[in-house]
């Protein structure tokens, strides 16, 4: 009886170790070799592998989470993993938050307007830029109105992207765009 318990425990530990070794090997494969066509790579992403990659999204390790997101981005249908991606949008790392929103945008997943709107207040400029781009593509009129506040953002990159998005959406007249760009130019300390 004790021998059976020990064997079962060893078997469980072995299975757990093999699964993690598989994901690590897969991760190393993609970091060391040129990118393969996504169709071939997607074949490797079976249900168990996807489950392990999703578990890794809760890690505090920014590099691991970003690598997992790169691999998950290879999935053709992201619908089953949307809840986990939504949770990842609150990750402590700005790189992860911007990466996941960029992944959703690239996949044509427009159901995260509320979350993208919340990221307009993010402390990281890169996250605010990705949120503006997401809202430009998927936001409704109210979401686009939220971009107005970013026309005065302290990060010049965010200001430029926000002004461009509002102009493209018709939320600013040509005169307003020119005035905002003039204010931007004055804010850089350059003389005309």
Characterization of this structure:
- This protein is mainly alpha-helical.
- Helices cover 68% and strands 0% of the residues.
- It is built from eleven helices and no strands.
- The N and C termini lie far apart (86 Å).
Write the layout of secondary structure elements.
Layout: H1 2-32, H2 38-44, H3 47-56, H4 62-72, H5 82-88, H6 94-106, H7 113-118, H8 125-138, H9 141-145, H10 156-168, H11 174-187
In short:
The protein has 192 residues and is mainly alpha-helical.
- How far apart, in Å, are the first and last alpha carbons? 86 Å
Number of helices: 11
Strand content of the residues, in percent? under 5%
Summarize the main sheet.
none
Mean pLDDT value: 80
What is the gyration radius calculated from CA atoms? Answer: 22 Å
- Give the % helix: 55-70%
Order of helices and strands: HHHHHHHHHHH
**From the helix content, strand content and strand pairing, which structural class follows?**
mainly alpha
Shape: elongated
What's the total count of β strands?
0
Poorly predicted spans:
none
């Amino acid at each position: 009886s004790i021998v059976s318990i020990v064997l079962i425990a060893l078997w469980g530990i072995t299975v757990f170790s093999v699964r993690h070794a598989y994901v690590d090997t897969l991760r190393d494969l993609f970091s060391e070799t040129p990118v393969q066509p996504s169709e071939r790579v997607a074949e490797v992403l079976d249900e168990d592998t996807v489950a392990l990659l999703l578990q890794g999204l809760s890690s505090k390790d920014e590099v691991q989470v970003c690598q997992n997101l790169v691999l998950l981005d290879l999935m053709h249908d992201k619908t089953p993993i949307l809840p986990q991606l939504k949770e990842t949008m609150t990750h402590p790392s700005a790189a992860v938050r911007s990466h996941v929103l960029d992944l959703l945008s690239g996949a044509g997943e427009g159901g995260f307007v509320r979350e993208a709107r919340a990221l307009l207040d993010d402390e990281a400029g890169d996250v605010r830029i990705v949120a503006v781009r997401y809202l430009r593509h998927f936001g409704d009129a109210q979401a686009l109105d939220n971009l107005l506040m970013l026309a005065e953002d302290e990060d010049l990159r965010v200001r430029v992207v926000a002004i461009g998005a509002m102009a493209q959406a018709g939320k600013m007249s040509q005169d307003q765009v020119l005035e905002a760009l003039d204010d931007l130019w004055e804010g850089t300390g350059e003389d005309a």
